Amino acid sequence: MNRRDFLILTAGAATALPLAAHAKPLDYMPGLVTKHLKAGDTVFLDFKASWCTTCAAQERVINALKADNPAYENAITFIDVDWDEFGKSELVKSLNIPRRSTLVVLKGEQELGRIVAQTSKADIKGLMDAALGAATA
């Protein structure tokens, strides 16, 4: 392999790695949360809307934390719940979700924590650490 081909392949691989490192969260559909909880998974729910600036700020923090610690993505099932589509769903009612920009962690029959409309890296990291602890216990 000549030097030019090597550089092109290396550049292509380096560009692809960050994309592979951040798996897209699952998109919520009825029954998805129950399926994962019954399988013993720790579920991190992100109730969000595409137009919500607080939701976008939370997403940036979550993605940065995942980039810093790949164990989050390896151990936790992340599910995005579109508020515009599912804001009045049974899931929202059963969990008493007050609004979009709510983050909730579930394991089995228990809610392990929640954050409502907060974007603090420390708070979100605390919630993700609680999820990771439950997932790896």
N-to-C CA distance: 47 Å
Structural class of the secondary elements? Answer: alpha/beta
Question: What's the architecture in CATH terms?
Answer: 3-Layer(aba) Sandwich
Runs in which pLDDT lies below 50 for 5 or more consecutive residues are 13-21
Protein name: Thioredoxin
InterPro entries: Thioredoxin-like_sf, Thioredoxin_domain
Organism: Primorskyibacter sedentarius
Keywords: Signal
Question: What does this protein look like?
Answer:
By secondary structure, this protein is α/β, with parallel strands linked by helices. It has one domain: Glutaredoxin. Helix content is 53%, strand content 21%. It contains 7 helices and 5 strands; from the N terminus they run αβαβααβααββα. The protein has helices at 3-21, 32-38, 53-68, 71-75, 83-86, 90-95, 121-136, and strands at 26-27, 42-48, 76-82, 102-107, 110-116. The protein has a 5-stranded mixed beta sheet, with helices on both faces. Helix 3 (53-68) crosses helix 7 (121-136). The radius of gyration is 17 Å and the shape is globular. The model is unreliable at 13-21 (pLDDT under 50).
Describe the structure in brief.
This protein has 137 residues and is of the alpha/beta class. It has 7 helices and 5 strands, in the order αβαβααβααββα.
Write the layout of secondary structure elements.
Blueprint: H1 3-21, E1 26-27, H2 32-38, E2 42-48, H3 53-68, H4 71-75, E3 76-82, H5 83-86, H6 90-95, E4 102-107, E5 110-116, H7 121-136
Parallel strand pairs: 1-3, 2-3
Antiparallel strand pairs: 2-4, 4-5
